[in-house]
Design brief:
single chain; mainly beta; Immunoglobulin-like; 2 domains; 9-stranded mixed beta sheet; 7-stranded antiparallel beta sheet
């Protein structure tokens, strides 16, 4: 929540995954090597608030055991099995980019071409008979613009392969990024800020419509509601006196009730980038005592 002195006081209170796949691990025997992926979450879920984080990253583990009677040497690859690359939202729309890195080997296994690139050399997972090992993957995402709230998922299969590409074990997993319903707001245009409060100087008060050179903007991953409260119930007050001048407020041409808790709602399934130029309508000034008049407005935004 943020405040803007007035004349103007604004507050913004805002309310914002890589996951996928399922099934038990497949076991393939190569000679006396027999790898089994013992434990792994069916979904690798990453929560990402684009208004609070520049990027999001989380690690996920695969526990692997060699149940054979000969050593195993394997490297990981990720296969989309024909699905287009990118995290897709159930409700439709564009796909989110992501990156997947196998931390143990220090290599990227992002399947941008439908399957991660086969690499030669480098560190492999080496397990003696009966030995257990751990593979750790980091999943990361970021966006250059606001996207719609929701779950974005890519179904993938993590393969453990021999040097020549023979499959030793595999595990379906759902890569999911979850973007919450969140919204932020702010002011742009002509105003001054002091002590965390934006102040708009109206100069000499005159009756009538007064467009301000100040705009309230809202960014949201979904629909939202803007609430406005007035310290003096829609009146400019001279100090601590009993002298008032009534006024009205409109946001982008939409009138707001300052006497009863004004509220503006915008329904949306997609992201929003909205501007609301502020306009005042000053009431009667004749016969009012000379001096400075002031009110404080508090604006609150919440995703819905």
């Amino acid at each position: 929540m943020s405040r803007v002195g007035i004349l103007s006081a604004l507050t913004a209170a805002a309310a914002l995954v890589l996951g996928a796949g399922l099934a038990s691990a497949q076991v393939t025997q190569a000679g006396g090597c027999r790898l089994v992926i013992e434990t792994a979450a069916d979904e690798w879920l990453l929560r990402y608030d684009p208004f609070d984080q520049d990027a999001a990253q989380q690690t996920f583990d695969l526990a692997v055991v060699n149940q054979g009677d000969a050593p195993c040497a394997a490297r990981s690859r990720v296969d989309l099995r024909g699905e287009a690359f990118g995290l897709a939202r159930v409700e439709g729309g564009g796909r989110l980019d992501y990156a997947l890195v196998e931390e143990r080997a220090g290599v990227e296994v992002t399947p941008r071409a439908g399957v991660s690139a086969r690499r030669m050399g480098g560190r492999m997972l080496n397990l003696a008979p009966g030995e257990r090992g751990l593979l750790r993957f980091s999943l990361a995402t970021s966006v250059s613009e606001v996207v719609a709230a929701g779950r974005y998922t890519q179904h993938a299969v993590v393969n453990l392969e021999t040097e020549d590409g023979q499959s030793l074990a595999e595990r379906p997993v759902a890569l999911t990024v979850e973007i919450p319903r969140v919204a932020v707001m702010g002011l742009k245009g002509e105003f001054q800020r002091s002590g965390g409060m934006a102040t708009i100087d109206l100069g000499e008060l005159k009756e009538g419509v007064r467009p301000l050179r100040t705009t309230l903007y809202v960014l949201s991953t979904s629909g939202y509601a803007v609430s406005v409260t007035s310290q003096n119930n829609g009146r400019l007050r001279q100090g601590a006196s009993g002298w008032y001048i009534s006024y009205g407020l409109s946001l982008g041409g939409q009138s707001v009730d300052l006497g009863g808790g004004g509220r503006l709602e915008v329904a949306s399934r997609g992201p929003r980038f909205d501007d609301y130029p502020l306009t005042l309508t000053i009431g009667e000034t004749a016969g009012k005592r000379a001096g400075d008049y002031r009110d404080i407005l508090t604006f609150t935004v919440a995703a819905i």
